[in-house]
Amino acid sequence: MIAFRHQTLLQELSLRLSVTDHCQMRCRYCVPSLDGDMCRQTNILTYEEIVTLVRCLQERFDLRKLRITGGEPLVRPGLERLIGEVSALGIPDLALTTNGIRLPQLARTLKKAGLRRVNISLDSLSPDTFRSLTGSAALRQVIEGIDAALACDLRPVKLNMVVVGGVNDAEAGELLDFALRRGCELRFIELMPIGPGRRLFETGFVSSEALRLQLEKTFEFSALETTLGSSARRYRVSGAGACTGSAGFISACSNPFCHDCTRLRVTADGRLLGCLARQSGYGVRELLKSPDPAAIERVVRRAFSEKRSDLTFTQHTAMASIGG
Ligand code: SAM
């Protein structure tokens, strides 16, 4: 029965490809300290290896969804070359998750290379809170990055807010209003006890349900249908004035979507992970030297069979090193 379920999910495979574990930000829930374990840039897959892997996955699974992530993907030089090459393979849903800092310079080039859409992290609109959560003073560039993505039609532009109780949760309404006014979809992400998020989790976890109840004082929510493999529970939202749009809640802790999870992750150094919550993974770099799509398919199936069946998190590696 479980094998049958995995077979169905594999037909909708969604690949999250990390191209670097470096990032200019130091989000408290994501990135270990500066001198931590994040200096493996020399071990990362080359663009050629990545394209070979994507081609094999496409051949065996009819890959239709690919998200490029990191670390911060836009710090890796020449990313537009990779995007151009995977776009030429005909993957219809080609997306990027970014902190947005470099988007003002790169949005147009990325769009031209074949990128379809972007998710941009935005945890706060207050420069002080932004700095305290992300270790960065680049809030203005991030907002310019959001506007650049909209101007280049990298739509839908989705904004990711990791909600941390006592730090930015009181700002959820302000961020939702900001997103609705710009025509972006805000996604409220529950803090996960992964990597450095573990410690913060003890004091900072806020469930999606609690947050929605708080927001319902100001906004009206009506549930939208979810599609297979979607991590977010989406709502039509209307706020003050004529502002309407949609928002999502990603509830990996309180209401996980494991049963429908179609995600496969590839770390920057070429490990394949079937489940974000579990400390596991299989190196595929060797297999890419003389690529055998059937051998890669076997590894994918093995990784997929390891999706968690309970609610625990045993992942100790930082999200920035896995690819969020
Ligand atoms: N640098 C890019 C960015 O800032 O979006 C992409 C990588 S980042 C790891 C991808 C996503 O993971 C971000 O939306 C981030 O907020 C989220 N994330 C990282 N650690 C998390 C944690 N412990 N709990 C929940 N979300 C987390």
CATH architecture grouping: Alpha-Beta Barrel
What is the CATH C level class, in words? Alpha Beta
Q: Give the helix level as a range of percent.
A: 25-40%
Radius of gyration: 19 Å
Fold-level CATH name: TIM Barrel
What do you see in this structure?
The protein has 324 residues and is of the alpha/beta class. The chain has a single domain (2-322), classed as Alpha-Beta Barrel (TIM Barrel), CATH 3.20.20. The chain is built from eleven helices and twelve strands. The chain has helices at 2-10, 47-61, 79-88, 103-113, 127-134, 139-151, 172-182, 197-204, 208-215, 293-304, 319-322, and strands at 14-18, 65-69, 93-98, 117-121, 158-163, 185-190, 220-223, 232-238, 244-250, 263-266, 271-273, 282-283. Strands 7-8-9-6-5-4-3-2-1-10-11-12 form a twelve-stranded mixed β-sheet. Helix 7 (172-182) links the parallel strand 5 and strand 6. Helix 3 packs parallel to helix 4 and helix 4 runs parallel beside helix 6. It is globular, with a radius of gyration of 19 Å. It starts with a helix and ends with a helix. Bound molecules: S-adenosylmethionine (SAM). S-adenosylmethionine (SAM) is lined by residues 23, 29-30, 69-70, 72, 97-99, 121, 160, 162, 189, 191-192, 194, 197, 319-320, 324. S-adenosylmethionine binds next to strand 3, strand 5 and helix 11.
Characteristic terms for this protein:
globular; TIM Barrel; binds S-adenosylmethionine; 324 residues
